[in-house]
Amino acid sequence: KQAARGRPFPVGQQAPVMSCRVTRLFVHPVKSLDGFEAESAEVLPRGLRYDREWLVVRRRDNKVMTIREIPAMRRVKAEIDGGYLVLTHRPLTGPTASYKVSLQVKKDAEEVEVDIWDMKGTIYDEGETVAAFLTKALSEGKATAEEELYLGRMVAPRNPLSASNSDRILDENLRIRGQDGSSLHILTEESLLWVQKQLENPSLCAEVYRPNIVVEGVPFPEEDCWDTMLIRHPKPRSPNTSDEGANSDASENVIRMKTLKLCDRCAIPTTDLKGGRDKDFMPTKFLRTNHGIAPSTEGKPSKGLLGLNVNIRLPGDAADFIVSPGASASDSASTTQGAERTTNGSATDDQTVIGVIRVGDELVVTSRRNPPNYL
User: Fold this and answer.
1) Count of alpha carbons within 13 angstroms of residue 307, beta-carbon side
2) What is the pLDDT of residue 163?
3) DSSP for 321-360, written as a single string
4) Contact 329, 169 (CB under 8 A)
5) Which pLDDT score, from 0 to 100, does residue 236 have?
6) What is the CA radius of gyration of the chain?
7) CA-CA distance, 219 to 66, in Å (whole number)?
8) Strands, DSSP E only, in the chain?
9) Residue 138 CA to chain centroid, in angstroms?
10) How far apart are the first and last CA of the chain?
């Protein structure tokens, strides 16, 4: 059983795989709608450009909706085409239908405060026409729409210090918009293959888990030990160049990242790409048993792990939170005492391009942590 699961070696016991390659990139413009695959993507302080910038919101109470509540969201695809956000509904039967929304930010639009996982943010309504399109598409198969929905666009990064639940603040330097608590989500090809083989289900592809970056070249689950990383465009190296020199700031277009936590899987991967729920709650149930850790709250189910939630690191960021998998941010508050607490979210900083990630780029692991206490 242990051999089937695989376990990374603790720090110092084995020389780890220190680099791998980016094989796939995904941008999800609308939270919980299908996104699109790209060969390259601009990186902003808050993540990939346009990633989770729009939200589907319930009109009556401004609640942000996800696949958990509306599995049919899997059947609406969001892409960027020229100056437009393009939404395409792919029904189970019948022709597809599309709607375009201008990427131009509306000025003087009425703003609404929403709550996403206990972290507040501000959006504006993209209008009644696209609201009607989404409401109809996501009510597929029903005689009438049960809830009126609208499309909201985030106008600024959410403030991590607005969270009343400290367990949600994994990094005070967060600049995210609609993401679930981290700038980027990373998966490995090897982890995907492991789950597919264990469950004999090749349909459990990367798209089911909704990552931003997929990499290849590391044995599963070595990524559970990654602490800090960088992604850079591969450059020819002299045979005399040391690994230490390779990790220096001399490389161009370096994107630095830090793992906030291992990604604990919820109900979303149990919804297939056509919007159907798995009756056995797979693969999440499998991960909770075969690659999981104990819950942080007594009485909750174990956490099934697959992938990393990481934050982009910029010069001048406050001291790192060192959060063990399953621990709350409050458990590591002592690591940031004395650091300047900032909201780091001005509109200017939020839109600054800090680099570009391309398929084929190199991910270099610059430091590791010990593996979690698996069940």
Assistant:
1) 26
2) 63
3) P---TT--GGGGGGGGTTSPP-----HHHHH---EEEETT
4) yes
5) 60
6) 21
7) 32
8) 19-27, 36-38, 40-44, 47-48, 54-58, 63-64, 76-81, 84-89, 97-102, 111-116, 119-125, 149-154, 184-188, 213-216, 226-232, 255-264, 292-293, 303-312, 355-358, 362-368
9) 23
10) 12
> Is 99 strand, coil or helix?
strand
What six digits make up the tokens of 141? 């198969």
Half-sphere exposure of 310 (CA within 13 A, CB side): 31
Place of tokens 């010069």: 315
Instruction: Note the pLDDT of residue 164.
Output: 60
Identify the burial level of 15 via C-beta atoms within 10 angstroms of its C-beta, where 0-12 means exposed, 13-18 middle and 19 or more buried: exposed
Do residues 320 and 258 touch, judged by C-beta distance below 8 A? yes
Beta-bridged to residue 120, according to DSSP, are 115
Q: Which of 344, 353, 257 is nearest to 309 (CA)?
A: 257
> How far from chain centre, in Å, is Cα 292?
19
The Cα-based distances of 310 to 116, 150, 175, 286, 307 in angstroms read 18, 29, 12, 24, 10
Distance of CA 234 to the CA centre of its chain: 24
Placement of tokens 């830090």 in the chain: 258
> How many residues belong to the chain?
375
Q: Which residues pair with 358 in a beta bridge?
A: 40
**C-alpha of 250 from chain center:** 28
- What DSSP character marks residue 148? -
Read off the DSSP letter of residue 276: P
Q: What is the pLDDT of residue 315?
A: 73
Q: Which residues pair with 145 in a beta bridge?
A: none
Nearest to 321 by CA among 369, 282, 286: 369
Digitized pLDDT (tens) for each residue of the chain, 375 residues in all: 443 455 665 655 555 567 899 999 999 999 999 999 999 999 998 899 999 999 999 999 999 999 999 999 999 999 999 999 999 999 998 899 999 999 998 888 889 988 887 778 899 999 999 999 999 999 876 645 568 999 999 988 776 666 665 555 556 677 788 888 789 999 999 999 999 999 999 999 999 999 999 999 999 999 999 999 999 987 665 555 554 444 444 445 799 999 999 999 999 999 998 889 999 999 999 999 999 998 776 777 788 999 999 999 887 665 444 333 333 333 333 222 222 223 333 333 677 899 999 999 999 999 999 999 888
Unique residue bearing structure tokens 């639940």: 165
CA distance 184 to 182: 6
DSSP label of 277: B
